[in-house]
Amino acid sequence: MGDAIVITSGKGGVGKTTTTANLGTALALLEKKVCLIDTDIGLRNLDVVMGLENRIIYDIVDVVQKRCKLKQALIKDKRFDCLYLLPAAQTSDKSEITPEGMIEIIAELKQEYDYILIDCPAGIEQGYKNAVAGADKAIVVVTPEKSSVRDADRIIGLLEKEDVEPPHLIVNRIRNHMVKNGDMLDVDEIIQILSIELLGIVADDDEVIKASNHGEPVAFQPNTRASLAYRNIARRILGESVPLMSLDDDKGMFTKVKKFFGIRS
Amino acid sequence: MITIKGTRDGLTLYIDDTCSFESVIIELEQVLSTKYVDKDEPMITVTIHLGNRYIHKEQEEELREIIRNKKKLVVHSIESNVILKKEALQWKEDSEIKAITRIVRSGQVVEVNGDLLLIGDVNPGGKIVASGNIFVLGSLRGIAHAGVNGNRNAVITASYMKPSQLRIADYISRSPDYESEGVYMECGLIDENKSKIVIDRLQVLSQKRPDLNGFERRILNG
Q1: Nearest residue of chain B to residue A193 (CA atoms)
Q2: Residue B69: what pLDDT?
Q3: Mind listing the pLDDT tens digit for each residue in B44-73?
Q4: What is B160-173 written as a DSSP string?
Q5: Nearest to A150 among B121, B125, B139 (CB)
Q6: Interface contact A150, partner B, CB < 8 A
Q7: CATH classification for the domain delimited by A3-260, as one of 3.40.570.10, 3.30.360.10, 3.40.50.20, 3.40.50.300
C-alpha cells in the first residue's frame, strides 16, 4: 500500500506544481514507484513542467467519468520507468470530478505505487476539496511572504478538519540576502506562526525556472542547490533524517577565512 | 404570612414560603388595603423577599399588579433564594473559565460563554470571542473580543501581545500601521477616563480590576 500525499498552499504561484514535479523526480531517483496527479482541472501545468504535454491522450476527467480505464490515462515519464503522471483536463472545470471519484482513483493507485503525489490547485473551493479527499498526508508549500504565510495558515486550519496526518511544511524560494537584511520573513518566524513540522527549505534558484521551461524538473540535475534541497526532502519523506542545508552562499576561501577570524562580511 | 418592614429605602415585604400562592395573594390584598397612605408622601419602593419560594413569570406579574394598583407603591425588586436548575446551569456556564488548547488559525473563530483561557496561539486572521475575559497563554496575533455582550470590565491578557485588533464590549482598537514589535505579558482593558482600550503591564490588573479574583468575580459576572 502506498502513501497519498497532497501538496497544497492556499495561495497561487508559490510553487506547488514545481514542488510536486521535483519531489516526484527525486523519489523516482530513489527508486520508488511514484504517480503524480494533477488536480488543477482547467489550468493544468504539471504535464508542462514534466515535459509530457504532448503525450496526453486521456485525462483524470475521462477516468472519473469512466470514458477510459485508469491505466490508459497514466503517462510514463521520459526519464524514469517508475514515474507516472495522471494529467488534468484542460477543457473542463473543477466541478467535473468529485471527492468520491478522487478517493476511488487514489485507492486504485495505492495498490501499485509507493507514493502518490497530488498537485492541488490554488484556493479552498471544489478543486482543493477534490485534491485533499483521497490524501493520507499533506505538504504545505509556503514562500517567505506574509500573504503566503496567511493563506498557508488558513489551509492548515482546513486540513486539520480533514482525515489527514498533521501537515508538513516546505519553505520555498528563500532568498538569503533578503532574509539577512530583514526584508524577508525568515524560516524560524514562519514556523513560529504556523507551528507545524518543517520538511525542508528550498532556496530561490534561477535553475528551477530554467529547468521547468525545458520540461525537466530541476531535481534531475545532480548538483544545483535547489535539486539537492528537493532530494533531501525526498529522503526525509522516506524517513531518513537529513540535516537542513545551510543557506549561506559559498563565497570561496576568503569569506571562510574572514568568518574564521570573526570578521563580518 | 406577610411581614412588612419599613426601612429608609422603602418597604420590604417578607412573604412566608410555606403557604400556597393563592393565600399570599389574598393576604397581600388585605394587608396593603388596610395600610393608610398619605397623599403628600413620595413614592415608596417595595422590595419583596420570597424566601425559598419559586414563582413563575405570571405569578410575578400578578404580585406586581397588586402592588402597582396601590397608589404610591412601586416594586423595586422581587428576590428569591431559589432559581431554576436551567438558570443555574446557565449562570455557571457564563461565569466559568473555559480552557481550550489549540491554535486558532487564519479564518477560524472560537467563541465561548464566560471566560476563555486559550492555551495556544491566535494567528493573524484568527478570532477569539468570549462573553467574559480572555486569557491567552501563547501569542495573540489575531483578533480578540472580550465582554462581547457588553461587559466593559472584561480584560484581554496574553503572554505575547501583537493583536491586529482588540475589542472589549463596544470598543475597538487596532494595531498601528507601522511595523511594531509585540509585547510580552501585557493586558488590554478599557480606560474609562480616556474612553479607549489601553495596553498595560499585567501587574496593573490587581488594582484596576480587583474583582478578577476568583469567586467574587464569578458571582458578579452572574
Answers
A1: B123
A2: 81
A3: 888 888 888 888 888 888 888 888 887 778
A4: EE--SEEEETTEEE
A5: B125
A6: yes
A7: 3.40.50.300
Strand partners, B47: B12, B77
Question: Measured between alpha carbons, how far is A144 from A147 in angstroms, rounded to an integer?
Answer: 9
| A142 at interface of B, judged by CB pairs closer than 8 A | no
Give A150 to chain B, closest Cα distance, Å: 7
Which CATH number is associated with domain B89-221?
Answer: 2.160.20.70
How far is A188 from B55, CA to CA, in rounded Å? Answer: 62
Cβ(B215)–Cβ(B95) below 8 Å: no
Distance CA B100, CA B118 (A): 5
> CA B174 to CA B4: how far, in whole Å?
55
Residue B122 has pLDDT above 70, yes or no: yes
B125, closest residue in chain A (CA to CA): A150
Q: Dihedrals φ, ψ of A128, to 5°?
A: -65, -45
Residue the block writes with cell 393608610: B36
**Strand partners for A142:** A171
Give the total residue count for chain A: 265
Rounded Cα gap, residues B157 and B32, in angstroms:
53
Quick: pLDDT tens for B1-31. 788 888 887 888 888 888 888 888 888 888 8
